[in-house]
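Board notes (copied after class):
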Amino acid sequence: MFLTPNSVRQLERVGLGPAVEKYGAKVGAGSRYFRHDGAEIAPVQVTDSSGWNATFGMHRADLVEMLAGALPAGVVHTGHRCNGFAQDGDVARVTFANGAVAEGHVVIAADGIHSELRQYVAPPSRPVFHGSVAYRGVLAHERMAEWPTDAWLMWLGPGKHFLTFPLRAGRLVNYVGFVPADQEMKESWSAPGDPDALRREFAGWDARIERLLRHVQATFRWALYDREPLSTWTKGRLTLLGDAAHPMLPHLGQGANQSIDDGMALAIILARADRMTAPAALLGYESLRRERVAAVQRGARENGLRYDSSYADLGVRDAEIAAHAAYRKRLYDHDVVPEAQAVAASLV
């Protein structure tokens, strides 16, 4: 996964900047887009408009460890599967399959694309399958000493694309090969894939990709889903956050980043709320974030079409890829904090 300046700005505010540097791998000016044969298209935008580079490859497990490790002992409880929700007056209640019950004045559903709690906020809907599958995995950099440890690299070809970036200070290389799928698959991060099938998909591409794929002994397949933007995230004392509210395709690298922005906005707004004003505070959070994140969801879909070269004229595709740097600057410039502070002040 990828952390970009808009969310790293928030992680630094809560004292996690050193942990991002420790666990992540910063990517720099050597980041590039290529055509599938290796011809360069354009640099990749890795800074905000001020030139601040806070763009990191991050292993998902490391991000979870970093965030959980910053919390007091006893805050995180694992082994709980939500199976029910109710609210009455000023109390919201979540029940779990192991018999546990949690009560509070607010419940935040951050339980992913298959959220159990979304049904209590919005009408049922199916995730949208986008006809492609990502083969993904990591390789030890020591097996490919020539591979750059500070660059995000993507190759674009007809109907598919291939991405690499470093993790863990460059000790690992993350690769993702996006290919068409003949049929809808279950959404999963851990379904096994066939390394030989992956190699066949990218046979004849840039020799660098073929060299990298020779080292792949095991891989995973990840079917690409998102959802249509929701018309509401909140009902009473329950609201949605992250993929529970706005699962998106990975083609802008913003899934985790927008979730972090959600969390910062919600924390600022709830800090000014009390038991009585909490429902209004949740609506304020939703009003701040819902339309913005829906636009990012749509942008991820559009960028996926660029990446998979769905253009009759690749010169047009390449020009759009180059011009996309301006959009990314605006995305990375965004700071959710002043807006959230304004919403919090309006609710007092």
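Comment from the instructor: The longest helix spans residues 278-307. Residues 4 and 55 are 4 Å apart (CA to CA).
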